[in-house]
């Protein structure tokens, strides 16, 4: 009577089977019911959002998450620990080997469709209600959807109190990796330099000389660096050493936040470029560093790779852009660094990165990509046809030439934008992805890297210097302050609510104030 892929039918069937099964006196185990539940006839393929075959079968994973929901466990850790202690149930569910926590998290948030998630949650509650009705032991109260934290929101005082403690912990983790190689006999402690750099980021448009004078009075330190000494020490660094220090700081930061279950949301990253304020001075001798912009001006430019989507939006790496560097070199460099820190599934980039060689590089790494394509003659012609046909969506295959008779194959997905202001073919956007066409919906997450840039630039010290190392250090350190803010916010949310939401619980201003206190200037 039903389509084998119907989730409504599956939910109804689970209720029917549970009602009959628990009516027998010897059937008093929720675990046993979930293991015995007949799912062979169910077609779960339409609800599997993965593009390629996976290690674990959908039916096995559905049973596992039915068990998780039945027990009301908030995170996958409890499920894994339970299965490790129950090898018989592990086998009955269909696991030859247990997946790790990260795999289970991605299964629920990336592989299962939202409709399947809802079906599992409702079905688990139905199983509990039927078991409870017949007097069987149930893992939790079926009237509650989960064992959650108190529903009352934490007060501002609670938030700032915990943020104060966590900010201190995080700053003590991240800052020590930065070194100026000044030797051990210097009178001014190296931490004073990083305190000053943080201080400069606390105030808008505050340059080193003026900031150093203010820092001298505001700081509780006996000795503080002068502005010119601070700049000279930073100029003595190299781009490579700054990136190495940043990488180690992020590794420490990730080690701290990865102790939380929610950090396994890592997987979706965005790559983009940004630029400093337009440079209006003399570029002589700096033409390779102060580059032309799309607005016809000149500016220092940087590229970053950042976690986006449901993950905490840490800036995993930052690098300066020099004249002559290709987009492919930039992408390869940033991906190498990011993949050394976290698991990466998909890469999002804007149309400036729509080169077939970049797409091939990402594909060769086994990663997915979603990139909009610039519309040339053939794309414009197709969009005009779709407009005449009144089609909102169209998918076609395209071979992109790599050279030497080699090609990169990728689908082109045409989508008409909702509420488009134009009435011609420009209503359509064209995307490329090496995953299923539905993966295009991930592209909306790319804008998080744009909003991140706005805050990062707020954290940057002001300067008129043309020194390339100094300019990049200011940007990299601001990226670190931004990442510290987001890491502190995640840890505070988990500690106070048990969950992580993208909207920050503490503001950037809160964190800067606490860092200000931590650096001894509060």
TrEMBL record:
Record protein name field: Transposase (TCE33)
Cross-referenced SUPFAM superfamilies: Ribonuclease H-like (SSF53098)
Disordered: region residues: 131-157
Pfam families per the UniProt record, alphabetical: DDE_Tnp_1, DUF772
Transposase IS4-like domain mapped to chain residues: 324-463
Domain (Transposase InsH N-terminal) ranges: 55-107
Biased amino acid composition, Basic and acidic residues: 134-157
Gene Ontology BP, a term: DNA transposition
Molecular functions (GO terms): DNA binding; transposase activity
Organism: Natrialba taiwanensis DSM 12281
């Amino acid at each position: 009577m039903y389509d084998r892929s119907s989730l409504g039918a599956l939910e109804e069937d689970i209720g029917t089977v549970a009602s009959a099964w628990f009516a027998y006196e010897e059937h008093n185990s929720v675990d046993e019911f979930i293991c015995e539940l007949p799912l062979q006839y169910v077609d779960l393929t339409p609800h599997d959002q993965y593009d390629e075959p996976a290690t674990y079968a959908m039916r096995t994973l559905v049973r596992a998450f039915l068990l998780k929901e039945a027990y009301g466990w908030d995170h996958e850790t409890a499920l894994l620990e339970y299965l490790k202690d129950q090898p018989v149930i592990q086998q009955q569910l269909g696991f030859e080997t247990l997946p790790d926590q990260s795999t289970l998290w991605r299964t629920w948030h990336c592989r299962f469709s939202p409709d399947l998630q809802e079906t599992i949650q409702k079905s688990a509650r139905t199983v509990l209600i039927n078991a409870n009705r017949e007097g069987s032991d149930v893992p939790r109260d079926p009237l509650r959807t989960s064992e959650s934290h108190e529903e009352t929101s934490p007060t501002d005082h609670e938030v700032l109190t915990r943020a104060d403690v966590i900010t201190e912990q995080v700053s003590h983790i991240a800052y020590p990796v930065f070194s100026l190689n000044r030797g051990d006999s210097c009178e001014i402690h190296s931490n004073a330099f990083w305190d000053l750099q943080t201080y400069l980021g606390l105030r808008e448009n505050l340059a080193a000389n003026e900031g150093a004078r203010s820092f001298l009075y505001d700081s509780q330190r006996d000795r503080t660096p002068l502005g010119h000494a601070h700049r000279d020490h930073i100029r003595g660094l190299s781009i490579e050493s700054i990136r190495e220090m940043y990488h180690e700081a992020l590794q420490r930061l990730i080690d701290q936040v990865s102790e939380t279950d929610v950090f396994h949301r890592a997987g979706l990253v965005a790559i983009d470029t940004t630029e400093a304020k337009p440079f209006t001075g003399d570029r002589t001798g700096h033409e390779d560093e102060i580059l032309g912009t799309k607005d016809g001006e000149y500016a220092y430019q940087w590229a970053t790779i950042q976690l986006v989507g449901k993950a905490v939006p840490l800036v995993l790496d930052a690098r300066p852009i020099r004249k002559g560097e290709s987009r492919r070199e930039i992408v390869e460099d940033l991906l190498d660094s990011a993949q050394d820190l976290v698991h990466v599934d998909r890469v999002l980039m804007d149309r400036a990165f729509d080169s077939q060689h970049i797409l091939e590089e990402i594909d060769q790494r086994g990663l997915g990509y979603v990139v909009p394509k610039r519309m040339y003659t053939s794309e414009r012609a197709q969009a005009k046809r779709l407009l005449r046909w009144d089609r909102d969506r169209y998918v076609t295959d395209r071979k992109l030439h790599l050279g030497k008779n080699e090609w990169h194959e990728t689908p082109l997905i045409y989508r008409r934008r909702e509420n488009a202001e134009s009435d011609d073919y420009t209503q359509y956007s064209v995307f490329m992805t090496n995953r299923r066409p539905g993966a295009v919906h991930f592209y909306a997450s790319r804008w998080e890297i744009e909003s991140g840039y706005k805050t990062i630039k707020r954290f940057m010290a002001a300067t008129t210097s043309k020194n390339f190392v100094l300019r990049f250090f200011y940007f990299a350190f601001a990226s670190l302050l931004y990442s510290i803010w987001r890491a502190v916010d995640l840890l505070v949310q988990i500690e106070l609510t048990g969950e992580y939401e993208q909207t920050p619980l503490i503001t950037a201003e809160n964190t800067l104030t606490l860092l200000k206190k931590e650096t001894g200037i509060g």
